[in-house]
Amino acid sequence: MFENLTDQPADKILALMSAYKADPRDEKIDLGVGVYKDASGRTPIMRAVKAAEARLLQTEETKSYTALAGDPAFADAMIDLVLADTLPRDRVAAVATPGGTGAVRQAFEMIGMASPEATIWVSDPTWPNHLSILKHLDAKTRNYRYFDAETRGLDMAGMMADLSEAKPGDVVLLHGCCHNPTGANPSPEQWDEIVATLKARHLVPMIDLAYQGFGDGLDADASATRLIAGALDEVIIAASCSKNFGIYRERTGILIAIGRDVPQTRTLQGTLSYLNRQNYSFPPDHGARIVSTILGDAELRADWQAELEEVRTGMLRLREALASELRQLSNSDRFDFLAQHRGMFSRLGASPEQVARLRDDHGIYMVGDSRMNIAGLNDRTIPILARAIIDAGV
What we know:
Elements: H1 12-22, E1 29-30, H2 47-59, H3 72-83, E2 92-98, H4 99-114, E3 120-124, H5 128-136, E4 141-145, E5 147-148, E6 153-154, H6 156-163, E7 171-175, H7 188-200, E8 204-209, H8 218-231, E9 235-240, E10 252-258, H9 262-279, H10 286-295, H11 298-330, H12 337-340, E11 345-347, H13 352-362, E12 364-365, E13 371-373, H14 381-391
Parallel strand pairs: 1-12, 3-4, 3-7, 7-8, 8-9
Antiparallel strand pairs: 2-10, 5-6, 9-10, 11-13
């Protein structure tokens, strides 16, 4: 039977990581991988995570399974972090998942069960794994315009024009904040317009919230998600703890589904638990227990928020420094969008040939569509990158 298998296309980001590691140049710069790194190039363990793990080591008494939906304390803590007091808890169903990717996958599975004829509208561009999973599931998809290559900002007119073709019951996949890969986000006024379109056309929003706390702050980054959750009857949210808690390898995520009323939410909860059972039975718990320990303790939570704020403001400072350096070198403001974007990523707007030139001539590695990880920079490498961008003719 294995003779029927064919080679799968290599993951472009993983291939880029391998090429970077094989490059012998000392001055090479990795802007490709989607992981936060500090100025020394490490992905550190946050202080509150260390403290929570130490506490768990002393107090945990079993490694038995949790419930199919995961630890209820984790769900409650995450629902509060994402939604605050937007709507009653009894309208919210939730299950723990292996990372944000697991939440996205389970959400797509649920959509397929509930409405197999629904089209899932995806921003152009989006996180490549969205499209990969949807293709694997043979889901119906369409793109909506999102990124304006000229302004490096949101193409709001194109987005609204494309979504005007969506049919009632279709799903619109949105990035809650810190759009990956572009870094360009709607303004509050544009979010209002998006919500109005969702309501008027009876569309179901699915929000991928992978970077809460990395953009403008924990509450600000959740504001669009809360706006949508408070305005519509049915909402799907896939949230990740990988970035804001720095627990990438613990694979900690949550899938949240909001029902129209309590009976519908009970059905949603049963469906989500059923999907967990079909996929991996009981979700992993260590990362979820870390998160619920931190969010449930005032001192640990304050320390976590303080360190997360240091990460966020550090990335903003890098953005502003790079934009400033490029402004001086180019004698123009055409790179100011870098300071306006939010999160780890920005799409530079370079052609594939220019991206290849940056890699071959300067040892600067970014994804072929010119998505670069701002967190891969530091004070020493910003001038090097800026000069290379100008030399490459971007």
